[in-house]
Amino acid sequence: MTGEGLNPPKVCPGFDIHYPCYLNPGFRPEAVKGKRNAKDSYFSPNIKEDLEGVIERSFRPATEILLGLLDSGFTCALSISGAVIEHLEAWYPETLELLSRAATHRNVEVLAQTYHHSVAGQFADLQEFEAELLMHRDLMKEHFSVVPTTFAHTDYPITPATAEVLRRAGIRAAVIEGSDGIGAERDPGHVYTYNGLPVLITHCDLADDIAVRFPWRGWDKWPLMADRYAGWLSVTPGDCVTLFLDYRVFGDAIGPETGILEFLRALPDALAEKGIETVRPADAARLPPGGELVESDEPAAPEGLQRTIMQQSALEALEAAGNLVADKKTWRCLLDTDHIRRMAMRSASCGKPLHAVSHQATHDHFAAFMRILSDFEERSAASAPSPKAVLSLRCVPPEKAFYFSSHERPAGYAAHSLQELVNMLEFAPDDVVRYHVEREDFSRWIDLVIGDKKLAGKVSGVSDRDELRATVQKRIDKLWRRLR
Fold it and tell me: Whole-prediction pTM value?
């Protein structure tokens, strides 16, 4: 037992180093019509220049500070995505070399993650989740001569299925987020087990003191100095406090003028003065467990909040697209958790910069995402075994979606594909279904937007909800068989 008046807990710090393939918000299919290769238009044309700014503000100064701290005995974990390594290797190899010096330091544990910081762990089929885990493992071995055995599972809750995939891949412990899922109601100061896997729960409140509240002058604890923060850690109950922070907090998300880099530099000495030892996750995972976490097969809510309708639509469309598109690399870039996170007005932070935007901003991001994914699927049709099947199964952007309503009053949800139409017909109120049936809206949308005249003819005049769903689902299943 630790806490005030007793031995202080150990602290297990970790840093998440990632840089997404940001979308091109201005993408329009008509602008690339006729181009043989449009994938470069899917992503921001400023990625390279923007990354250079992040390097100058954060990656370089924070890593230079970290290297000095490591030489002085500070220990930590680094979770480095495959996406950021690709960017740095192509454009800024000197920064990759700097990060390599930190990653290969004797006091650092390199963590496993999905290669593209991917949402694939939320799919019903975890084949892509496992593939990206193994891709990342191979990359860590290639660049840093290490095979990670601790997984950073912080973008959505761990489940029995993902835990099983981790064990098969040789993972012996996991870091999970304390703001959601099975870790939400547990004391984050202890190590737990989950389906036999040791689990560390991030301490969201203490992580957000740095990632969110540090620069806020209205905070009653501002300015936060390293010695005060170390004092809080020293009286935190438990055996080990796990802190997992977005690396860009240091100098980018929180500017250097706030003193955030000086805070990082001063923290290890402040911890030492309080008698606090820093440990790596693999070492922390060997502490006696504080209990077993309860299994949960409930749908995962990303980033600590209930999924929005837009997030749900995007995730379903993404999973289906994996079997429709020809270019897996571009598809994997679209799997980045950052894209889904931006489809909510507010998401939990837990060591990440707080995300809070307007409803218009979330809708604009969702619309851009779906336009890109839809165009990508359409362009993949030509190389598929059945181009017509791909075109019928693809998703469509919001401006072409089927919007449910009743007597001109919007119901608040829309279908962006045939499968989503089937799913929504399951819970749509009777008066809404009746309204669209009477107007032949379903048949017209399937004909004019989806382009499946055969299915449109079959659903025309069908008024029974169950028959309507069964007819469309039977067609969907037949189309998928053509692609196998």
Answer: 0.92
